[in-house]
Write a structure and sequence with these properties.
Pfam families: Abhydrolase_3. The chain has 205 residues and is of the alpha/beta class. Helix content is 33%, strand content 18%. A six-stranded mixed sheet has the order 1-2-4-3-5-6.
Amino acid sequence: MAITSILRYLRLKIIVTLLRCVVRWRQGPFLIPPAPLRRKLVQIPSREAGRVIDAWLYYPDDPALINWHGSGFVFPSLSIDHEYCSQIAQKAGIFVLDADYRKSPEHPYPAPVEDVEDVLAWVGEQSTFIDASRLAVSGFSAGAVLAFVAASVLRSSYPKLNIRAALGVYPGTDLATDPQTRIIPAPVQPIPPKVLDIFLTRTRR
């Protein structure tokens, strides 16, 4: 059984590494954002000693929006939402925290949710510059799933935070159904079931 688990992990590691290389090659220019209005890298303490969660803080003013990027739960794509975060920070005049989270297969579920919890806990302690009573969350794809988790099942655990809005862009709303059994009427370039299987089913412990 242990050998089977190791071989399964190595297989996923090789597939995800190749996929990451392809994505970085195709989206490379988008992952290197131009100079924003105002942006600084912050490191949020995690529950694990010696490990931090990277996040870009876009500002000028409170209240705040926390954003989680899309990744299929496997791609290291922090900063891919740079233009979105910059526009929100500039046009709405609010803080935007674009937070990272751990990815599979190195860190399967519940690792990303734990990082969301640590980010929420950190935001709740930043009362000197973030108004936690006026907070929104957003995300794209896998990040949208995490945003909805933050706004629903996790919100009661953080009484200092008042999450007033949640925005999800193409979220995965069904992570339980086997991707091989899904039927999409008139699909427009759907994600192949085998790829969905890597993104969703196999990212769990």
